[in-house]
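User: These chains co-purify. Model them together.
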Amino acid sequence: MAYIELKDVSYRYPYTKEQALKNVTYSFERGKFYGIIGENGGGKTTLCNLIRGLIPHFYLGRLKGEALVDGVDVRDWDTGEISAKIGYVFQNPFTQISGIKETVFEEVAIGLENLGVPKDEMIERVINVCEMLNIEDLVKNNPNELSRGQRQRVAFASIIVMDTDTLVIDEPTSQLDPEGTESVFEIIRSLKESGKTIILVEHKIDLIAEHCEEILVMQGGKIAMSGPTKAILSDFGTLDLGTMIPATAVFGHAMKEAGKPLADIPITLDEAVELVERRGE
Amino acid sequence: MHVEFGNSFKKFYKTGNFWCDLYPTTKLILCFTVAMSTIVMNNWIYGFSVCLFYFIFAFFTGHGKQFTKTFLILFVIIGLFLVVIRQVGMRTGNVTPMFEIFGWIWYRESFITSLDVSSYMLGFAGGILLFFDTTPMRDLMYAFEHMGVSHVTSFIMLSSMQNIIDLRKTSVAILESQKSRGIETDGNILVRSKAFFPTISPLILGAFSSTEEKSIAMDARAFSVKRKHTFLRELKPMSQIEKILCLLFSLALISLTVWKIAAALIK
Amino acid sequence: MAIEVKNASFVYPNGFKALENINIVINEGERVAIVGQNGAGKTTCVKMMNGLNKPTEGDVIVDGMNTKDKTTAFIAKSVGYVFQNPDEQIFNSTVRAEVEYVLRYFKLPEKEIKERVKRAVQLTDIAGYLDINPLDLPYPIRKFVAIAAVIASKPKYIILDEPTAGQDKHGTETLSMMISELEKDGVTVITITHDMDFAVANFDRIVAMSQKKIIADGNAKEIFWNEDIVSRARIKKTQIGELAKRLNVPGEVLFCEELVEKL
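Assistant: Joint model of the three components:
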């Protein structure tokens, strides 16, 4: 059975004319890693807000159709309980720091305090997450005085520590350098391997290609295309939907046009290396 | 190092200072009863002795500098103001001239009353100031939450203090960006206000719009879960001695009040 | 005419040393991308170029003027800086007012204001948002509003601080187009970026910073094909470059067409 089921969902934010989601139908399965890509303003964040129950509980507006999370309509979810089930990390690293704690360690622990996790377990979990996100050196720092990149890591740690079944992550690496970005992707991958459902919005297409299993391309409030990562990102037509495709795929198409076709269109580096080498044989 | 730091939360949070490590409610009751007592006594010798005691005590708690800075300002403003006002305003009952400045006679009766009034105003303000100087807001909110105040209230209180700091940071940043667009922000007050004035309203609007995102962020941290909360950083609960101390101070204040009222009635 | 940074170091008032002995000359008409890890000193360095930071040691000379002798506002007329976070820059209640703000401050003639605004919003593709409150626009668009405001003030040098963060395909394309148009207008563009594809495609000179210092300065091939620099600056080769390396393709290939040709 589908874990998150959207049936003909349309949604309009209050005080706006245009629908932000138009007749969206999709099933997310448990334990899979989904990438949401597409042009800005295409509905990526709105889709996240819906899955996370912020629509319709926080953003009022007009919601049509059915959106079920674990069999329960989002309208019937208690906002508190849904936050214990689905973690949500979003873009702005500034607003995700509470501003009420004096050290990063305490900041990361807030979610666990609210969930009523016993103290010894809380400390252990925070320690583990700090190691995982490489912020051990920051634990004593004041979270309000961190750099943008550091804040983004702390915000991410604060959600991961809650150990929700599902994570909705909206551009977690926009403030990070290449090294930081890769490490965040590694973490997301290991979370997926531990059985979590991941829904990730990201522009960095190379990393999407390498890590995600399924892709949704959003455009104008609709799911313009969806399917396995390979099928979506090796298709040249995807470019018309306001999103990039990996440089290796562009390379694959260019090879074809130059009359030196590879056996397949590669979407990752490893694939490209393999395909080019196979061609030589 | 992070493990060690994490494990330090297993013990009750302590600063090592006897007074600062009292439970916030204890400090509140003790400060408040002493502060109130100066009003009930309405006597300058008592009031100023208490004030002197505050100064010494503040140093003993390690907050002497901070306390002295604010309290001295209050002292000068309230004290001087009242003394002068009484000399100008209160004419009846003045019989004993003290001295004369350029033909303006100062009377002993007005002077004493003004001392009495300023002593209790300062005595009260000082007690409250001492409490807030020696009790971080987060400790106070911790105590309130344990008394059943919702954590949302406590969040709003604590985060609004951070918001003020953030607002200041943003306004500095906006001034910097003005500079880098060619607008002079250095120089006399006119130049500076010309650059600063247009930024005020968007600064506040911006703060409001980030509140929306912040509430989503806090919701993601399970703020609206209806479960019993736990606390990472815990304060040592009120000990028996603290409870007895609070009781004694409260009783002392009540008896003092009763005695004063009775004395007034008999008169 | 050039921006010259000579033996410059910078220490923040709190004692934190952010830059050590920086030497770089950026000539008019160049396109320079500054790359490197977070915390390497990139932003501190460019803020020195427009006078927001005055070097604590050494000198920064902009078109012959030492930044120490002039106010930031004066230097900024030549060197415009677009902040990394647009929210630290934007404060007007409509996009139009924001872009016009400096022009009105300098009391330029109405016709001139109109022309400059038109050009700036055309280059940044925000013409459709002129009457909207910037606070109601998404982050990537706000970033373009901030850029437009600086373009409108017509500095000779424009510094962009991570312009591609959060941009989609259209946004990145708009940036590339904008940069080449600015070059036509005779503007020198300097950018800080983590996006190596963006750097390689749009900038002919790349400066790598690491731990408060400039460790390399050259064209894309010189930087990305030098393993030592790549690992010290913690940057990443572009995907095509990496592919060429793994395939042992001769020559320092960075672009798709080159690679296709050589295979």
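Chain B touches chain A through 40 residues (CB under 8 Å).
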